Amino acid sequence: MAESITVTTPGLTSIQDLGRLRASRFGQMTGGASDQYSADVANALVGSPRTAPLLEVVAMDFGAVASIDLLVAVTGAPAEVRVGGVTRPQWEPFVWTAGEELTVRGIRDGLRVYLAVHGTIDAPYLLGSCAPDSVLGFGRQLTVGESVAIDVDGPPIDHPHFRMPLFRLGARPAAFTGCWTIDVTDGPDVHEFGSTSARLFETPFVIGDNSNHIGLRLTPTDPGSPVPKRDRSTEVLSRGVPIGAVEVPAGDEILVLHRGRGVTAGYPVLAVVTATALSQLGQARPGQEVRFRKVTVPEAVDAYRTQRRSIDLLRSRVANAFASLRIPLHTETTFAQHSSVPQMESA
């Protein structure tokens, strides 16, 4: 049954998913939710697939009205979440009552909030993803009065389970401290920096105002502190770079490429941010402080596997709770069947 939500306060909100994992081979940015962990958990809490579209609200207030009762979950940065003026919890599913306005206000400590829906949000697709691509001009921010169509299975969901604080599914909220410790592994050019590579870990950095989903610009918190310096003058040829590459151009700043990065670049890569730390950087606000911490590749892999196990356990708890309440789960197969918008060809 096709229903919709109508945007009353758009803020900076777009329809996102986890991005185009295989897009780099076609020369396209990966894109997708900047905080992959929060987006993944939001979909898990409402029984939707990892790849299901959801709303990403960035920094500013958001509001919308639903045409039908919806089961939703809000994760990401701390914020004031209300339905009809009544406070609702983050990191737990709750019912968004038809005709009442859901608002997300006062986003703090972090930068992004994610709103997932038990159902299928209709969106155009490019190379298997609805994630916006700013280079190609694909996707956009929502506008006031816009209606976003949602396919909902079965009758409206309203059950005491979702109104009683006794029941909690145990999602692990991300930590928001205002000062971020970001794990990195050695980059391919670490040997070109000699002893100055240690400056990356000895110096706190502050996030610049001109940072975005393409990358973050960071300068030392103390303007007098030196940054790592390459000890050779040979030209660096443009080559493929991963998401999370820590680049060191000439000057007094470093760059950290994020999910909107281009697939090639020509600056030396001193380090690479780990998969789990990338979600942290997706929440880092301009003006906040960042410290880098060196880890080994096995440590980075272990941290990612631990995070994946926690989400898998959450999905298992959600599946058991939904089965007892006779709420259908949206699998990858049913998600594909319910998606009414055809795939678009790449440019």
Kindly name the structural category.
alpha+beta
Tally of extended strands?
23
Order of helices and strands: EEHEEEEEEEEEEEEHEEEEEEEHEHHE
Global morphology: elongated
- Terminus-to-terminus distance: 33 Å
Main sheet: which strands, in order across?
7-6-9-4-1-13-11
- Multimeric state: single chain
Largest sheet: 7 strands, antiparallel
Nearest-angstrom radius of gyration? 21 Å
Strand content: 25-35%
In a nutshell, what does this entry contain?
It is built from 5 helices and 23 strands. It is α+β, with helices and mostly antiparallel strands and 347 residues long.
List the helices and strands and how they pair.
Layout: E1 2-9, E2 13-16, H1 36-45, E3 54-58, E4 62-66, E5 70-76, E6 80-83, E7 86-87, E8 93-96, E9 101-105, E10 112-117, E11 120-121, E12 125-126, E13 147-151, E14 179-186, H2 199-202, E15 205-207, E16 215-220, E17 239-240, E18 245-247, E19 254-257, E20 264-265, E21 269-273, H3 275-281, E22 289-294, H4 297-324, H5 332-338, E23 343-344
Parallel strand pairs: 12-23, 14-22
Antiparallel strand pairs: 1-4, 1-13, 2-3, 3-10, 4-9, 5-8, 5-10, 6-7, 6-9, 11-13, 14-21, 15-16, 15-22, 16-19, 17-20, 18-19, 18-21
Helix pairs in contact: 1-4
How would you explain this protein's 3D organization?
With about 350 residues, the chain is of the alpha+beta class. The protein has 2 domains: about 210 residues, no CATH class; about 120 residues, Cyclophilin (Beta Barrel), CATH 2.40.100. It contains 5 helices and 23 strands. The chain has a 7-stranded antiparallel β-sheet with strand order 7-6-9-4-1-13-11, with no helix packed on it. A 7-stranded mixed β-barrel has the order 14-21-18-19-16-15-22. It is elongated and about 65 Å long. The chain starts with a strand and ends with a strand. The C terminus is likely disordered.
